[in-house]
Amino acid sequence: MIDRRRFLATAAATTTLASAGIRPALAAEQLTLGAAKPFSFDALREQAQALAGKPYEPPTDLPRDVLERIDYDAHGKIRFKPDLALFADGPGQFPVTFFHLGRFFQIPVHMYVLDGQQAREIVYDENYFDMPKDSPARALPKGSGFAGFRFQESRLGDKDAPDWRGNDWVAFLGASYFRAIGELYQYGLSARGVAIDPAVGGKPEEFPTFTRFYFEPPKPGSDAVTVYALLEGQSLTGAYRFVMQRGRWVDMQIESSLFLRQDIERLGLAPLTSMYWFSENNKPGAIDIRPEVHDSDGLALWTSGGEHLWRPLNNPPHTTVSSFGDSAPRGFGLLQRDRNFDHYMDGVHYERRPSLWVEPVSDWGKGAVQLIEIRTDDEIHDNIVAMWVRAEPARKGERIDLDYKLYWRADEPFPSPLGRCVATRQGNGGQPGQPRPENVRKFMVEFLGGPLADLPYGTKPEAVLWASRGEFSYVFTEAVPNDVAGHWRAQFDFHVTDDEPVEMRLFLRADDKPLTETWAYQYLPSQAVRQG
């Protein structure tokens, strides 16, 4: 598979655009377009529903030997010509450039440009790309399709904007994956159109593909773009509308309709995918020279009852699934809260990776936010999935409409007014100068801000603890001695004798009022390494 670290460092009758009558603000030079065909979002939904009633047909095969020869190095030498970017002409536009097919992206994706209620396919031609004369890509036939696309960061005609040719702010590439940057100008975790049977024992995960994209010409001066997509897979089909806004950060409004071809055991809706290898809370020995390596350090939830929870991520010894039941949740997300460069010491700038928040718009009903954590031994694997799973089974013939928003930002868009968890640490239990007891782990959890900053002098918060089993001891709270107002920590020892996971919860309160969000942690005794 392609190295995600390296990827993040890179991320019929025909007419021409000019003769098609839609030359303005489309491309500086000619792109070849197919014949005009009617288009609407309702018609796209109908097409997806009709496809779901038929057996799945894999995309048309391209010469596999040619695609295999377009390896990482060969693919990196193929660049879409910026002067041919879609919507490149005129001020106030977001140019679109396309990714080439290759060994790691073999399913052809077809791109269409809209003109009112008409759609014309952008017919693939090798001449759209700068590539070496001996590139294996030259053996692909005309009309093969593309691998994906990206919107460029800046708009032409903005004298204060950087050169758009070197910057992009959203990219769709591979299966139904897409990613965007936050206000810190970094890619990181991904979203997906849907997740099918992740972490289901005995079944391989299925990865449906966005096979067609339709681009609306951006309105002059607008900071939003609209893209439609057709999703196809063995178990379902779908129609999507993405309205993506680029301001200080990237926000997306998503409308989707899914049509099930067959029963699905675990159907993940609005799924997020990230990477967590280790952090200050969970680093096995001198595994790496860096203090922490992760795109996200925790799952945040805002429940229908108004409670804010923070679940630090784990790199477990084997795949685990945690479930947080709710009805009509207010939101959830995978966040990168630790923004201190010294905690990573890496030129890829993990401290700048965006956080991604999901806000339901339609009624999601009963279900659960499920967190899947998969064992990894390197940073090149996406091993974290967070998604919504409905309470009712996903059955063949069903239609599922789901509307939601995605916020690609440095922080969650709807933070709790209470203090937030900013650090989780653990080590050997017991007391200095005394024999350390077996099966006892010491935890230190830090909270910052909110009402903690306004506590009356002499008031000491109380730690409210709960665990699914086991015993607490040596519980106390104290202000972190760093002269930062409202920075408190709770410390406790925890004793459990078996190796099964333990669910734990903690928050701080005073005068019977909560002062912080709830720390919700899964302790894995089998992973605790005794030191000394």
From TrEMBL:
It is found in: Periplasm. The keyword Signal applies. One of its GO terms (cellular component) is outer membrane-bounded periplasmic space. Residues 39-523 form the Glucan biosynthesis periplasmic MdoG C-terminal domain. Residues 1-27 form the signal peptide. It comes from the Bacteria. One of its GO terms (biological process) is beta-glucan biosynthetic process. The keyword Signal applies. One of its GO terms (molecular function) is catalytic activity. Pathway: Glycan metabolism; osmoregulated periplasmic glucan (OPG) biosynthesis. Keywords: Periplasm, Signal. Pfam families: MdoG. PANTHER family: GLUCANS BIOSYNTHESIS PROTEIN, GLUCANS BIOSYNTHESIS PROTEIN D. Belongs to the OpgD/OpgG family. This is Glucan biosynthesis protein D. It comes from Verticiella sediminum. The lineage of its organism: Bacteria, Pseudomonadati, Pseudomonadota, Betaproteobacteria, Burkholderiales.
